[in-house]
Amino acid sequence: xxxxxxxxxxxxxxxxxxxxxxxxxxxxxxxxxxxxxxxxxxxxxxxxxxxxxxxxxxxxxxxxxxxxxxxxxxxxxxxxxxxxxxxxxxxxxxxxxxxxxxxxxxxx
Length: 108
Description:
The chain is mainly alpha-helical. Helices cover 71% and strands 0% of the residues. The N and C termini lie far apart (39 Å).
């Protein structure tokens, strides 16, 4: 970020949802895959490992739930997250899926 840019603070959960959406959006005016990749690189620079893993878990959880909503099997995505990020993040992903689903049930 340069000196002219401004920053905002949002929750890790909200950023995770936005990242999951951005990674699959098909815009004509923006390269959303590149934007998501650039943000992912910024995330990897975060010093706090817990926050970094929390965000990765939310991204995978929201993505997996969206795949399931479209009738697709999210097992490959979850297995890929375990392989890429390890068992600790996989455990967080599963907890995030439960958390998101619980919050959705409460809203209905």
